[in-house]
Amino acid sequence: DIESDGGIIFGITYDYQFVTDDPDIPVRIWMTMTDENLLYDAWIPATEMTLVYDGTLNFITGNQTIYIPFQVPFNYSDTAMNIAVMVEKRSDHTNGQQAFSTYSSGGITSRRMTSNSNPPDPDNPTSGSRIGWNPVMRLVFNHNLGTVSGTVNDPEGVPVDEASITIDPLNITVLTDASGNYELPYVPEGNYPTTAYKYTYQAVTQDLEVTFGQNTQLDFVMGQLALVTVSGHITGNDINGEPVEEALATLTGFANYTTTSDADGNFLFENVYSQNTYSLMIEADGYETYIVSVPIELSNIDLGEIILTEALIVPFQIVTSPAAVGMDIDWEHPSTNAGKVWTFDDGGYENGWAGEAGEQVWIGNLVQFEEPATITGFDMYWAKYVEYATRQPVFLDVFDADNNLIVSSNEFNSGMDEWIHISVPNITLHGDYYAMVRWDAIPEQSSFLGWDSTNIVNELARYKYPGGDFAPFSNIISKKGNMMIRPNVMTSETIPASSRILTGYNISRGKLEDIANAADWSLLNTESFSESHFNDTTWPPGENNMYVYAVKAFFTTGESEFSFSTVINYLGVNSPSLDLMQTTIYPNPASDRVFITGCADSDILIFAMDGRMISMTHANNSSTSIDVSQLASGTYLLVIKNATALKQHKLLIQ
User: Fold this and answer.
1) Up-side HSE of residue 564: CA atoms within 13 Å toward CB?
2) Which of 34, 387, 446, 576 gives 20 to 30 Å between its CA and that of 170?
């Protein structure tokens, strides 16, 4: 229902309050005149309306008004009728703090449809829901109008059909017909730059002067873009000017092109559209990715020699296993690395969580490594949410399933409505771990770690307080969700190792707690070696602790960072006291149940030989038994530990 003398509508405004930016959102708007006063029974489908806007919009944080200029002005010619407006906005609508302003309409004058999985069809809308309020919107009229018409031809006078003519400041757009003609019946009086565009043609912009009540003729001549070639020669900084064969070269921009370098390192892109700027990316096994901007004018381009930088990739998936003598350490060749980002969220957040000022708490995710993988860092999303939230110093800690701290990041500042990447020491993990952001009594309220609750079946979000265990976050908020924390991992591809040869590896061993000083650990090898395997004959150590191996790869032009193995929790050194001296276990070997005597008020732990804890039992009395029927055949460590002593037995399972 609108009070107006009628006229041409050139745009619409909406008021909204958003707590975070919502950029590049696809929006379509339809309008029509109607005799209906209410939308009580049904929608007016888009097929019976005029599409006035089809594009993307940027919604910014705060209390805002957005103006949407129509690409097709709408003629409100009969003021006895009402105007119906349909808006389609495709975005994440699960965040209740992203809202448009409304007012009570006193009747059912609006309808709404939403879906997270099946977007509504404007041409055939379902019933949706009836609502008794309207969005706060304004229609923009202009009565000082003229008309514009013209033709678009190529330099030979051939008509160019389906060329778009856009009055740039007004966003009014029309397409030429088969004869190259166009008409714009509603254009406000004034001067405007106007652009003719068609794919594969050079865009042309001219000045348009529109006079009230008159037609302006504006013709365009558009030439097709010239086709040129782009070539170059690829070498590596580690091979003294020798060519790099089979490098993948990609040119992206106005059009996209792909090719590979030949045996001489040469590459060639043909039929490249000129007068545009492209991005050139070159990828080759064993080298850093090369990216450069390439402006292309009217002539062929030879980029000359492109020198790739050798990639100093770390060894990964470093796993340990007991050997007849010592400990075996195996890892994957750096060139077989497949870097991946594991995702447990849909990219949108419904809420955010953070520690309070002065509070110590951990918030994060359970991360399950079903196969060994080397972790290099984490991506995480931070939301501001409230005006008083600020960037505050926090840490990222990785714990194992037994609450042992494995690695920590350096201190970093929480983000503001953004993804940030946090590096941790490269370490191989296998089993269940917790990636947790630590708030350590910060002075002010930080921004909030993003939390996704859409279609979550397996809840991974966890929290922990000092001295406590990890607990599902749903214990606090009664709803399942995952924190927006994404591990960056290295896993192996089923491809042969690079033909480019490493100069070798070094390996050392140290305590997990001393991982920051790995450069000071003593080498286990006497000289550099090239196999992805090492047998440590000095194992076991003389002290109970948590240990890791550090492996470094050496290349022609430098060396990699350290990469660390799975953690070995070694408890093999006895510290007997009188109350454990008489401890016995039987039978040994065992296949069903093992009996232990002399173990009053002690913990009984069974470890695999690689340090993984298999089970833990507490014995209150001086004798007890443990079911071992589910253990695989092999050798285990049975550890008996009380408040003052620890004793270890080798347990054989048949």
Assistant:
1) 28
2) 34
* Predicted pLDDT of residue 190: 94
Distance of alpha carbon 463 from alpha carbon 334, whole angstroms: 35
β-sheet bridge partners, residue 358: none
User: Residue 281's closest CA among 302, 310, 257?
Assistant: 257
Superfamily, domain 227-308 = Immunoglobulins (2.60.40.10)
The band of 524, judged by pLDDT with boundaries at 50, 70 and 90, is very high
Q: Which has the closest alpha carbon to 171: 23, 56, 65?
A: 56
* Whole-angstrom distance, CA of residue 585 vs CA of residue 583: 7
Tell me which H or E stretch contains 127: none
C-alpha 439, offset from chain centre: 23
Q: What CATH number has the domain spanning 338-492?
A: 2.60.120.820
| pLDDT given for residue 563 in this prediction | 97
Query: pTM for the full model?
Result: 0.66
Q: Which CATH class is domain 578-653?
A: mainly beta
Q: Which residues pair with 307 in a beta bridge?
A: 235
Which residues make Cβ contacts (< 8 Å) with residue 387, sequence separation at least 6? none
CA dist., res. 502 & res. 492, Å (int): 17
Q: In this structure, what are the phi and psi dihedrals at residue 226, rounded to the nearest 5 degrees?
A: -70, 150
| DSSP run (H or E) holding 578 | helix 578-581
For the domain spanning 7-142, the CATH number is 2.60.120
